[in-house]
């Protein structure tokens, strides 16, 4: 992760937010290469949802919503994490993460039996009626110390709501409390009728949305894996009651295929995780997990949310959320299957999966083996020398390609160094203009992953790229 974090900074993928002021925990900025990669990930998700399915349409709902939305959704009452404070260092931790860290520590030390004993007690504590107290008791009996100060000086475990609150209105104190949305999904639920009517859709249909979400989480490390402000790509699929199991299976498979085929992730690094303990609104839930360098963790959730959300919004708003099924000639509240993937997590998954190193002449050479469709820069053009008309031919080619692709022109340093610079940002194809180009109008194309080279005609470069990028 250290190598990846440093590459991400050096090559302009991700920076610590407000770094000149010492940063702000768990907030990050996407640099020039990062925004391109992130945009490409969003595009392949958007295409997979709204272009590949004619019964899925898009939405971009506001981040701030009527606060009653969050009462109806259950977030005001129940969207909280168990927190514990180290009284010596004043650092705050998530109690469950503290115990998980302790279990991992035991495993690393080879204390396998002890680790599985604590794991069993942990699972029991998470299912206890008084979960915060049960977690606290486990921390105390196992004498788990603070990771930062080493102290054993804990407060009780308390539940903290994760929603960021702000005030509406010009004069502080006089406004009503409003929240920064902790998930994009609720913007979709409250628009169920408006979108359906405007798009003349009939159940089953889906609404897809990409947008920022905010959670006041306690975060320790792991780069952009868990942040206070992040982007979600969510799709709510509305189905007839009692057909949700089939829709759930369909989406489970389709979403896994998106990770392997659209993102190009190695299938052996991906797995499903079935939730046995379900959220109050769900009748089934699976995560798609990726094997990150720091552990196998969730990148996406697929949840069968029943009719909970529509029912609650109907109750709290007093407006019917029922749907009239023209075929069945009956009214019902549709059930919902949700697919929810973090854009930043998918970004990290893609970076981790693409990162590869090779030792060459005593130097470490990094290549990001990104799918061409995702690569921030699709091609680079190099004049072999800054003379004999080579720069002019290169610049002309770049201008022509830039109408369709993100392309870079690089004339600085040796060709080898220029290749390395492009490999580090994952550019799949480099074209070199040399003496032969001036004679026969051909260029050398060099493939990033194999370093293989071939000659193609200058006039074919654009169609070559078009073909390769659509593969
Ligand atoms: N609407 C359902 C929902 O929000 P979730 O499992 O809480 O479900 C869905 O979140 C996805 O959002 C996760 O799988 C993860 O990829 C991403 N996500 C959640 N919290 C995050 C955070 N603090 N930072 C980055 N991504 C996060």
Could you please say which CATH topology of the largest domain applies here? Answer: BirA Bifunctional Protein, domain 2
Structural class: alpha+beta
Strand content: 25-35%
Provide the CATH superfamily of the largest domain: Bira Bifunctional Protein, Domain 2
> What general outline do the C-alpha atoms trace?
globular
Question: Rg, please?
Answer: 26 Å
Can you characterise this structure?
The protein is α+β, with helices and mostly antiparallel strands and 471 residues long. The protein has 3 domains: 2-77 and 164-353, BirA Bifunctional Protein, domain 2 (2-Layer Sandwich); 80-161, Herpes Virus-1 (2-Layer Sandwich), CATH 3.30.40; 377-470, 3-Layer(aba) Sandwich (Rossmann fold). The chain contains 16 helices and 23 strands. The chain has helices at residues 2-10, 32-51, 68-72, 75-78, 95-108, 112-126, 131-141, 185-190, 192-199, 244-262, 308-317, 343-354, 390-401, 415-425, 435-440, 461-469, and strands spanning 14-16, 28-30, 56-59, 80-85, 92-94, 158-161, 165-167, 177-179, 205-214, 229-239, 270-274, 284-292, 295-306, 323-325, 330-332, 335-342, 355-360, 363-368, 379-383, 407-409, 429-433, 442-447, 453-457. It has a 7-stranded mixed beta sheet with strand order 3-9-10-16-13-12-11, with helices on both faces. Strands 20-19-21-22-23 form a 5-stranded mixed beta sheet, sandwiched between helices. A 3-stranded antiparallel beta sheet has the order 5-4-6. Strand 14 and strand 15 form a beta hairpin. It is globular. It starts with a helix and ends with a helix. The mean pLDDT is 95. The protein binds glycyl-adenosine-5'-phosphate (GAP).
